[in-house]
Write a structure and sequence with these properties.
single chain; Immunoglobulin-like; C8orf32 fold; seven-stranded antiparallel β-sheet; globular
């Protein structure tokens, strides 16, 4: 049972004073059977009051306003969290799963509709052709999920300079390169084409000594829904299941739904943003 100490800092700098800064933060870890929050402290420049609430997807978020003038805004989340290993594949194998008829029924359930219709994604013929070349209907849904995960990992180059935060699926597909956010968007698109509900997950990856890709910043992966099991976490950036080295913050349709920090301000000043994540750990 590893304990992770995670510091996530975001600093905005403005070339002159700005006013009426309004920010929304999704920096609060999910509580579930695989992770337990021990402590957390969120520090914000000017120490504004933070109002907590819950969004459509069940994520905890905070909102705050700073009147200004402000030339710098620092938001620092320091948390200690304990994670627990779960033999996911053994758990999945022990249940009655893997029927496409059960998957098809999900499209009639409002709970899953948001995770079945790609948001702001244009249909790309190449992806459609690829997905159907796997002949999903003749395969086990779990196998398809894992094979799609492996496909993205194998065929896309991890390159932190290849894309931007607002790069489209089309752009990522054509470049065959990107970062965790891009890999997650591609995998979601592929899974949804087979009618498997899929959602975007934002959090942290805590690599220990394994050299997993995506550390040093917030990380993204995917959850796919299997009837009689629930949401299965899969990480196309590292071709693995999301287990005790993944710390989950929020879920949504895509990055925009779960961005750890976003906001607005009044003024014509330009801004720069720097975000860093530092992780240390100990094993009980």
């Amino acid at each position: 049972m590893p304990n992770f100490n995670i510091e996530h800092q975001t600093i905005y700098r403005y070339n002159y004073g700005v006013y009426n800064i309004k920010n929304l933060i999704k920096l609060y870890p999910v509580w579930n059977e695989t992770q337990k929050l021990i402590s957390q402290k969120v520090e914000i420049s000017g120490n504004p009051d933070v109002i907590l609430n819950t969004d459509t997807f069940g994520n905890t978020f905070g909102m705050f306003t700073i009147n200004g003038p402000q030339t710098e805004l620092a938001i620092t989340s320091t948390l200690k969290i304990q994670t627990f290993y779960k033999d996911v594949l053994a758990d999945v194998a022990g249940r009655k799963l893997h029927k496409w008829a059960d998957i098809a029924i999900l499209s009639m359930d409002n709970t899953f509709k948001l995770f079945l219709n790609p948001k702001d994604f244009y249909v790309i013929w190449d992806i459609n052709h690829l997905v159907y070349s796997f002949n999903p209907a003749s395969r086990n849904p779990l196998d398809i999920i894992l094979e799609f995960n492996n496909y993205v990992y194998t065929n896309f180059r991890y390159d932190v300079f290849a894309t931007r935060v607002n790069s489209t699926v089309n752009e990522v597909w054509n470049m065959k390169a990107g970062v965790c956010q891009d890999f997650a968007h591609i995998l979601i698109y592929m899974l949804q084409l087979t009618n498997i509900p899929a959602r975007y997950v934002c959090g942290y990856i805590c690599p220990n000594k394994d050299g997993l890709r995506g550390d040093g910043a917030s990380h993204a992966w995917v959850e796919a829904y299997l009837p009689n099991y629930g949401w299965l976490g899969i990480d196309p950036t590292n071709n693995c299941l999301a287990q005790e080295k993944h710390v989950k913050l929020a879920v949504g349709r895509n990055y925009d739904d779960v961005a750890p920090v976003k906001g607005e301000y009044t003024g014509t000043a330009s801004q720069t943003m720097e975000a860093t994540v530092a992780v240390s750990y100990q094993v009980d």
